[in-house]
Structures are given as structure tokens and as C-alpha cells.
Sequence to fold (220 residues):
Amino acid sequence: MATITSAQSGNWSATATWVGGSVPVDGDTVVADNHAITLDVDINQPNTLLTSTGSFSRFEYNGVDTRTVKARADSGTQTSIWGLIRMNGTGTLVFDGEVKGGAGTNAHGACNFAAGTLTVTTATGGAGTNAHGAYNLAAGTLTVTTATGGAGMNAYGAYNAAAGTVTVTTATGGAGMNAHGAYNNAAGTLTVTTATGGAGPGAHGAYNLAAGTLTVTTAT
Fold:
């Protein structure tokens, strides 16, 4: 299918947002070209890849209701993408698909910046340093079914850095040094059903380094 690139920041459903005026369809590669794309509608495009070409790039939800996106996302080679998929509201954003951290430093796949709920099916750390798959930076809730550390140093699968709640079903360390599957570094709560260490040095399945609470059912 086609590569659809953003022309400006705006709503996903608006033709003016996209170069050539074509709203993305299933199977397209969708590039946020240093723009903020608002997820104003539910998206059911499991074969669509969301990616970026600038550190300002993001696909975000700012609402109070529930928004569901079925697609794939990869932060690409850019640095300092604080969540290619970003939750900024008090509602719920459900991302049904894999979100990957990128090759650049701090190129996070998905990030919760607010008191809402961000749910991700699969979060994988990237090749870049600190390129987390999914990242919680607020008092909200981050839920991940499968979180895997990446090839980059400290590229966690799921990371809690706030007073919120992070729940992971399966957390696996990655190939990078300290690329934990799930990591708590705040006063919040991290709950993991199954945690497995990875191939990288110090790549724990689940790791707590703060005054918060870590609960693991099975650790191997």
C-alpha cells in the first residue's frame, strides 16, 4: 500500500492533515513528519504501520472517552520521541497491536502523560538507549499484555516513572544491558504475572528500584 505523510498537525480523519489529502487506509505506512496527529476516531487498520520523521512526531489522544486503535507503531530512528503513541487525556486509549521503541535515544513507543488509561497489547523496547516500549509518566494507568526489553541499553519493555499503576501480564528482559521487561522507578505500583530474565547483562524480567510496590506471580 501507500506511504501517507502528514502535511500539518491535525485530526487523523481530516484530509488537510495529509499530503495529497488522502486519509490513511489499512496497509499504509503512516509517517508523522514532525507533527502531532490527533486520534479523533477509532482506527481498525491492523496492517497499518505508524512511524515518524521528527522528535515532535506523535499520534495522540486527548479525550475523556475511550479511543481504540488497531495498528502497529515503531518510533523509527529519531531521538527524544516521548511516546509516538501518546495519551494526554483522562479517558482511555487502547492500542491493539505492537508498539516498538526506536533506534534513537529516548525514542519511546507509547507514553502515558496524564491521569487517564493507556492499554497496549505488545510493547517492545528499541535499539536506542532508553528507548522504552511503553512508559508511564503520570498518575494514570498503563496496562501491557506483553512487555519485552529491547536491544538498547536500559530499553525497557514497560517502565513506570510516576505514582501511577502499571500492570503487565508477561514481562521479558531483552538483549540490551539492563533492558528489563518491566521496571518500576517511582512510588507507584507495578504488577507482573510472569517475569523472565533476558539475554542482556542485568536484563531482569521485572525490577523495582524505588519506594513503590512490585508484585510478581511467577519469576524465572
Notes: The longest strand covers residues 43-52. The mean pLDDT is 95. The two ends are 42 Å apart (CA to CA). The CA atoms of residues 45 and 109 lie 18 Å apart.
